[in-house]
Design goal:
Helices cover about 45% and strands about 20% of the residues. With about 650 residues, it is α+β, with helices and mostly antiparallel strands. It binds 5'-O-[(L-methionyl)-sulphamoyl]adenosine.
Length: about 650
Amino acid sequence: MSCHKKAYITTPIYYVNDIAHIGHAYTTIIADTVARYSRMSGLDTFFLTGTDEHGQKIEEAAKSRGKSTQAYADEISATFKDLWDDFDISYDKFIRTTDADHMKGVQKAFSVMHNNGDIYKDQYKGHYCISCETFFPETQLVDGEFCPECGKPTTIVEEESYFFKLSAYQDKLLAWYNDNPDCILPKSKRNEVIRFVEGGLNDLSITRTSFDWGVKLPADLNDPKHVMYVWLDALMNYVTALGYGTDEADMDFWPARVHLIGKDILRFHAIYWPAFLMSLGLPLPKHIAAHGWWTRDGEKMSKSKGNVVNPKEVADAYGLDNFRYFMLREVPFGGDGDFSQKALIDRINSDLGNDLGNLLNRLIGMSGKYFEGKVDSSNVAKYYQTELDEVHASLEKLEPLLFDMQLHRYLEELWRPLAVANKSIDKYQPWTLMKEGKEEEAMALNGLIAAILSKVGIMLYPVMPEVCTKIASALNFKIDNNSWNAMVKGTALLETFTLEKIEPLFPRVEEPLLEQAQPKDNPSKNSENTKKEAKKSESKETEGIALIGIDQFFQTSLKVGTVVKAEEVPKSKKLLLLQVDVGEEEPRQVVAGIKEWYSADDMLDTQVCVVANLKPAKLMGYKSEGMLLAAKDENGLCMIRPEKPKTAGTPIG
Ligand code: MSP
């Protein structure tokens, strides 16, 4: 047995009635992020995922495809495993509920619960939803027939069944929720569960006789017509994967640090599962963390609508790490999220390209230009202690946010050090320092930027492993428990090194890379809509507004810029000569015809909006490498500016 602290992290096991979609990828990517962080921080980590293969739903799915149930389960289970391998998901075990060891473990659990009096046999009559694999009392049905969760018709099940005495656990469960305020995350979800349990719990039917694709009861019960209820079978995977009921070698990983799940399966995890564990005499998980639901372009995803997001297609088109970042950053954990290519592109171009990738490019550019690539951190503290303190204060806040599953806040906080770095370049202007002969200060500024990139790289690694490995190799260090200890827990900076040029990490995405989802259902209605849209755009054009597509709009690169130097163009009444920082290695020179309304002093240190991909032009002999947005009416001209300060180079769009 290892003396390291243990962390056991799980995803739900996925039903094999369908291939993986963005919802499955989301849970798995969160779990992978937590597992990677956990390993990096020195915890002995076990990360479990797998497939849920029994039950009537799977049996019917196989039948409808004319396949044997086992062959069908093998096939779909392999597609999940292949996808996670392709996504480099760092799972330690991939469990299948058709594994012999798992089935043995489930039978053992059944015997233990039966022997301690928690299981009894009776007659069951009730309404069952095959799609949700759940029984519902008549009072909960919609129109007396339909499932309250998915809306599909339920079937009446009338058969002999074994029952688990769930009702006997009501008080114990309530005591557990009360004594462990963060057993269910986010905390708001805990209240929902408490209210449900306070409403009273019925005993749970845990066997079925009307089909047989499931785990049989223990042989000594001599009741071969029963198979176990799929949720009892499935939930047990979390302990059978550690060897429960067979070779118990890994049981010292139990209890789980966190079960990651979607909100739709919270009841099974927060009520049934702890009750089963109490009955088995096993400790309860530390956290059950339920995330929200993903929609696409504001609509629920479904096969019939043809709008299901395929995670592999997205990752192939936009990059796996970018997709991971987007999913975790875009949605507060527990809330619902919407997938749209526009939102993904914005995150890539802005947060990743501009704030992170460009910072590394600027460092490569500056160190190459002034110091032949050398970065020496010796004097960082001498000149930039305030900035370092700010960075370390942010880093300290991160770990609790991650273990609290507040991943969007984790990433938000992790971007503060990047803002410190970007602002420091604008503020101290290495090109000016060099002109003034302050080489030591300029080198220290490079050291500060490199330090920030290395520390952010370590903490971003669990979310973006591939990208951060590249950043670390450019900065000549390795991301592991040692560097995490030294540079994140501690305040160490990088040793002196020579920075190599690397390919840009986040090439700008100019237009959507995937085809838009084409609604499949109700074709006549769609063509009607298309006609209506066409009519609408025609009428707008006749009003004199030429309509352009989003692609055309994306062809213009608009950026926030900071005016770092401003002077008059000699002998010109109209022109100012500005140096505008747009997040590149060096400021751009822009000649702007605004002198009638703004003096050079008015413009200095202000922010502007720059058209950044215009062909350079010469005005009064000065090269102009951009155009500023302004609005002019009869009362004069005013600049268009961001409402709040934004990092220089932030894309507008
Ligand atoms: N087999 C059960 C889990 C048993 S765990 C002991 C199951 N499988 S599932 O394949 O239907 O769903 C697995 C996970 O995917 C759930 O956590 C569910 O919340 C998640 N998602 C399915 N569709 C989703 C979205 N559209 N958005 C986000 N997650 C969703 O339930």
